[in-house]
Structures are given as C-alpha cells and as structure tokens.
What we know:
Elements: E1 13-16, E2 24-27, E3 32-38, E4 41-44, H1 49-52, H2 71-120, H3 129-150, H4 157-189, H5 192-205, H6 210-225, H7 235-242, H8 249-286, H9 299-312, H10 318-342, E5 347-348, E6 353-354, H11 357-382
Antiparallel strand pairs: 1-2, 2-3, 3-4, 5-6
Amino acid sequence: MDSQSAGGLPAAGWYPDPVDRHELRYWDGATWTGNVADLGQASVDPLEPQLARSATPVPVTPAGEKPAPRSTKKLVIFGAVLLLLVLVGVGGWTVVSRSLAAKDAAASSIATARAAIAAADPAVEPGSQELTESQTSKSELDEAASLYAQGSLLNAGPYRDAKVRADQARAVAQGITDRVSALAAEASAASPEDAIGLYFALEQKYPRTQQGRDAIANAATALLGNLQGSDLDDLNAVSGFCSRCPGDVPSTVYDAAATSITSIANASIDQQASVVSSNKSWVAKIRGKGANFTISSTTAADTSELTHIIGVLPGVHGTDFRAAVTLLRDCSKLGEQCGKVARSPVKKSSTVAYFTRSQVNTISRLSSQMAAKLSKARGLLKNL
C-alpha cells in the first residue's frame, strides 16, 4: 500500500492520537476521525472540526489495520498498574487507620470535657472567677466540636486538633471542681472554730454545689461538737455567733441541737423509768416487813445533765421542750429523795434492810409522782 494519498498527505490508517486523549486515532487520508483505539480496543471520540485538520500524522501505519500492542508493552503496563495499586492500598490503609484512631480519641476527649463542664456548672455564679473560666471551657469545647466535624478518613489533622482543644476545656472545668473539693477538705480537717468559718464561706461562695449545700449542716455539727467546755458553752454565745451566719444557719444549728438534746432527754426518760420500776418492785416486797435491799440511785448525774441542758439551750424547741426537760429534772430530784430514804433504813444487816412504814410509803409516793411526770414528759417530747 502507498504511504501517501494522491494529495501528498499520509495514507489513511491508524496513527498516534494528535491530541493525546487516546493511544491511536484513525486518519482517513484528509482529516482525523472520531475512531480511536486503546490497548487494542476500538471506540469513538470525535474531535472538534478545527482540531481534525490541525495536525498531520507523522508515523505511518498500514491503512485499514489496527495496531496490535506488543506483549512486552502490555506486561510492563500491567505490572506498573499492579504495583501502583499495591502501594496505594498499603499507604491508604495506614492513613485510614490512623485517622480512625484520631477520631476515636477526639470523641472520647470531647465527651470527657462535656461531663467535666456539667459537673463544674453548680460552682459557677454570676460575676465570679468561675464564670469566666466556665465560658473559656465551653468556648474550647465548641471549637473542638467544630474541628471534629472537619476531620475525615484521609485527613486526621482536625481530629488531633479537636482532641487538644477538648483536653484544654476539660482541664479548666476540672480545676473549678477541684477548687470546691479542696475547700471542703480544708474545712473538714480544720479545728472546730476554724471549720465553722470555712464551712460558712464555702456555702456563700458555692451555694449550688453539693459541698455548699452540706456546709451549713457541717457547720452546725462542728458548732454543737464544740459547745461543751469552750467559750461557746452558753446560749448567748451561740446566739451571737449565729447572728453573723448567712441564711438559715441559726435555725439549722438549733434544729441539730434539738435533735441531739431530744435524744439525751429520751435516754434520761428510760433511765428514770428504770428507777421507778425498781422502786415499785422494791416497795411491793418490803411493805410492812423487811426485804432484800435492791434499789440503787443513779439520778444525781441525770439531774446535773438535765440542768445543764435547760441552762444552755432553753429556747431550742419552745415551751413543750422546756417543760419536758423540766419534768425530767423534777423526776431526777424525786429519784434522789427516794435514794436518800432507801439509804437510811431503821436497821440494816449484811443482806436485809428494815424500814418503817412511813419510809416505805414515802418511797411509794415519790415513785408514783415520778411515773406521772415521766408519762407527761414522754407526751410532750412526742409532739416535737
């Protein structure tokens, strides 16, 4: 076949694509056609009219024949493609796995920071240092969330930046919580006098925290524990101190005191009731004759204790409480009288004591009075 047409142009045939979009393109002897071939596979890809005449084929391929790629060329191309896929696969998996790890770490830090901010929130009051710190912490968390949303499997950078911001947010919020806990620990380890002031300061600065809510009750406990044997061992000192306390401290202190004193009063009732029971049993045995002497008087300590209660906190729970304690004190005095009679028999041997009828009747009468006062005191204390 001729390699040129009659007009001096290359003969029709397959030539390298002049626009490099394909491996080969068909030249019809005058212009380029849309017929193309790649690796022996034919297809159609038309050229624009100006491009179809803009270049003339240089290498001449026999007209009408489709070029057949060499086998070695095919093997080289296939090997290169396979190697590229392997390299891209290994490198791509490494990138993806690192990105997933960074994403998980960022998500965990954001969740931890969010929990720390929520825990610190009760310690944040308007105009406080904690408010400024809380705003900073929340701003860092918002930035972390924004960065997290920008990350992807092929771009782990935003995930790493998000973790840094979230960790900063958590540290600021945790600092607020640690500060409150440190103040509560300082108060609990202080002396009673210092602890009271520290607890009141804690309640005023952080009233919405659990430590702040507990501070008043803790202050009342410290105050009550320091009443006896201190300069606060009188009602005026307690009232004066509580007048300087914030909020409901006075009523809280007195409520705690009343609980403690009511417990003492109830214990005294049980002690006095035991004495009455012993007296009545003893009277029944010795009425009109000698009998074994089993009565023992332990009321002197009760009288002292109850007198102290009435003198220190007379206004703890109003009239009913004072009346009940007064009855218990009177009951103790009656018990002391019983004890005096019991310790003075007409005749006494090692195991038998003899009393006059008058002595026996006196003990019986005093015991009945004690029982009546105990019953009335129980009734008053139940109403508190």
